[in-house]
Amino acid sequence: MSKNDFRELYDQIPGEKPSFEDVWRITGGNPRIFRQLYSMRWNIDDAIDYIVRSKELTPDFISRWRRSLEEAVEDPDSIWRSETSREFIDELIRKNLIVYNLYERRPGLWIDQPPPEKDLEIGVGKNVAWQTPLYREAVRKALKKIDR
Q1: Cα(88)–Cα(61) distance, integer angstroms
Q2: pTM of the full predicted structure?
């Protein structure tokens, strides 16, 4: 969703809420995640817990892909390397956790403004990005929760 359209949605929500920029950055402009946060009274921890469960970030999944997930949380482009398992990539795509093989950042290819070339703070790499920053945080939490 474009930033301007997202602002319109944000402005329609009554009551106290986090700043627009905070909501934009944590949701990545995803209206479904925005609705989820609103329904959880802006409780990010509850939203992350819900994502961990709904995306099936299970002990088996985390244990199997721990090293690759740890790298991807820090830099999603680590998934782009030639030695990355295709099975791992397919699993992340199936769970709708990442966007793989991002389009070039030419303005004509994007509805609004293109994403940054690389912004590790929000989980955007040159070739791979987390679907939303909250998904990356859910993986980070699952990694911490499920010890080796």
Answers
A1: 10
A2: 0.88
Identify the helix (H) or strand (E) that includes residue 129: strand 128-130
Provide the 8-state DSSP code for 116.
P
* Inter-residue contact 34 to 6 (CB < 8 Å): yes
Rounded Cα–Cα distance for residues 65 and 123 (Å) = 18
CA dihedral 136, 18, 113, 51 (to 10 degrees): 30
| Domain chopping of the chain, boundaries | 3-51, 56-145
- Looking up tokens 């990442």 gives 98
* Polymer length of the chain: 148
Which residues lie closer than 8 Å to 17 by C-beta, 6 or more apart?
A: 10, 23, 38, 42
Per-residue pLDDT of the chain (148 residues; tens, 9 = 90+): 778 889 999 999 999 999 999 999 999 889 999 999 999 999 999 999 999 999 999 999 999 999 999 999 999 999 999 999 999 999 999 999 999 998 787 777 777 777 778 888 889 999 999 999 999 999 999 999 987 6
Strand partners, 98: 130
